[in-house]
Design a protein that fits this description.
This protein is mainly alpha-helical. The protein is about 70% helix and about 0% strand.
Length: about 160
């Protein structure tokens, strides 16, 4: 059962789902508008969760992660990287360095470094995440395999036809 008053709980939920109906799903001219709307909604959601749940609450941290994925998807890698670094510090402090959410953030942080051309740094971070994920989740877990795939893509040159 939710410990929040119903009105507060509903307002956080509305921020979760508002604005993503059919009205902006199919029109290619609205892609930038949709991404901006998504980022705005996620930012509003982060603000609401920080205010109601606290900055270190697991749901707040997960919402920050979703916002950073939206930022990264727009090619704003430096901004996303800075956000992931701060999020990783908060998650390590509250959840621990081996928590699956922290490992997700570390994985995404490494991807941002790689997208900015810092391949050696990204590979080292991915190797560390891979080792930890294999120990915690097992070698066949989808997240472990995703990290292995990212590391392979980063370290192997593309095949030329």
């Amino acid at each position: 059962m939710c410990a929040l008053p119903p009105a507060v709980h509903r307002s956080i939920f509305v921020v979760d789902v508002a604005g993503f109906g059919d009205r902006c799903r199919t029109n290619p001219d609205q892609v930038a508008t949709r991404e901006g709307l998504y980022r705005t909604l996620r930012r509003d959601q982060v603000d609401a969760r920080e205010r109601v749940l606290g900055v270190d609450h697991m749901h707040t941290l997960r919402t920050r992660h979703a916002l950073l994925r939206a930022v990264a998807s727009q090619g704003r890698y430096a901004e996303a990287e800075a956000g992931y670094r701060g999020l990783c510090e908060a998650q390590t402090r509250t959840l621990g360095s081996d928590h699956p959410d922290t490992l997700n953030t570390r994985h995404d942080l490494a991807l941002q470094a790689g997208k900015q051309g810092r391949h050696a740094e990204a590979a080292a971070m991915l190797r560390d995440v891979l080792k930890t994920r294999a120990q915690i989740l097992g070698p066949q877990h989808p997240h472990t395999r995703a990290t292995l795939h990212a590391l392979t893509e980063l370290t192997q040159p593309p095949i030329q036809p």
